Amino acid sequence: MKNNRRSDYSGFKRKLYLRLVFIGVAAPVLIYLFYLRLWYRRGGDVMVSVFRALFRISDEEAHRLYTIIFRGNIAFFWIAAILILFFLLLRMILNWFTNYFDAINRGIDGLLSDDGDISLPPEMSATERKLNEVRSELHKRAVDAQLAEQRKNDLVMYLAHDIRTPLTSVIGYLSLLSEAPDMPAEQRTRYVGITLDKAYRLEKMINEFFEITRYNLNEITLAKEKIDLCYMLVQLTDEFSPLLMEHGNTAVLDADEDLTVCGDPDRLARVFQNILKNAAAYSDPGTEIRITAWESDDSVVIVFRNHGRTIPREKLSSLFEKFYRLDEARASVTGGAGLGLAIAKEIVTLHGGTIAAESSDGIVEFTVTLPKQPAP
User: Fold this and answer.
1) Phi, psi of 352 (to 5 degrees)
2) 24-68: per-residue pLDDT in tens?
3) How far apart, in whole angstroms, are the C-alpha atoms of residue 89 and residue 77?
4) For the chain, what is the mean pLDDT?
5) Is residue 141, in this structure, part of any structural domain at all?
6) N or C: which terminus of the chain has fewer CB atoms within 10 Å of its end residue's CB?
């Protein structure tokens, strides 16, 4: 990497070196040519004439003054002439050099503009490339921020609708209970049950918002320990059996009984629950959801595979983004706020692992990779 960076500026350094060598050679050569062409056998007479006219003295006095001032210090004057010419040429080099800073400043100004790629002199190709990379990254971040803001606004709109529905039911049933104190016990019990279900749904949606905010701010401290991963997955499939049966689905687990991983059991359980809940919501009725786990080098891999609608490739990377919903209509029906996979990604990242999704030919796979041992 260092060698590449050095070679990136080789053209600029070569041009700078050549110009420095040029002024180092040009100054004495030009003075020498001046001496041969203009000064040799003529310079003394010119100076004597200048002294005679300037100080109004005789030729003999002017000649004596020239001898004292110049002939006795000839080396000093020629060295001074060379140095003066050298610094004049050096100033020209510095003016040329500062033009590059002006070009870089124009390039920096272009970071926030939409006038096309930033262009610098050929010698500054490395800086030009870096500025264009920064410009592309800034543009990408601006687009991502705009999309995130739009998704957040959309999510607020969806949630306002989703929350209003159960909230209206809660208010309606509570109003009935309040207005009819002599309501039959059986009917009262049924209304209370419906109201309680709607309140639980509201609580669930609000809790999801709190969860994603907490994970996003990295306020979660993991309590890592050795986990019997196979046992955790067995419990998970048992807990989800009633939900899966409603859709006619079944969960099949394929994992070694001695499979373990180091992590926070509560947080990892939340990851697997969110993925399985997503698989249950989007699986075709009567199909199988297969969970496979195995060891791979220093990591553990867990794959959730279900049959459902193929997810377009351009949408796969967005599944784990905050405020992203693949299917707003179905998400609203299932009651989720569209944050489960985003929460899962945050937890896996905190564990030093990765989570990814693949989809083709009606098969959807979510792969979680976790380190077996905690990071040092």
Assistant:
1) 80, 20
2) 787 788 877 877 676 766 776 777 788 778 778 887 887 787 777
3) 18
4) 79
5) no
6) C
Q: List, in order, residues 6 or more apart from 367 with CB less than 8 Å away.
A: 301, 302, 303, 304, 355, 356, 357, 358
Query: Could you tell me if 207 and 234 lie in one domain?
Result: no
**Neighbouring-strand partners of residue 368:** 302, 355
Cβ-based neighbour number of residue 256 at 10 Å:
11
Residue 333 structural domain: 225-371
The enclosing H or E element of 35 equals none
Residue 286 three-state SS: coil
The two structure tokens encoding residue 272: 């697997």
- Residue at 67: amino acid letter: T
Q: What is the pLDDT of residues 197-256, one digit of tens each?
A: 888 878 877 776 666 666 555 556 788 899 999 999 999 998 888 888 888 899 999 998
What was the pLDDT predicted at 326? 54
Q: Are strands 288-296 and 250-255 parallel, antiparallel or unpaired?
A: parallel
- Residue 269 CB partners (closer than 8 Å, separation 6+): 232, 236
The DSSP string of 212-274 is HHHHHTT-PPP--EEEEHHHHHHHHHHHHHHHHHHTT-EEEEEE-TT-EEEE-HHHHHHHHHH
Q: pLDDT class for 166, splitting at 50, 70, 90? A: confident
Eight-state DSSP code of residue 326: S
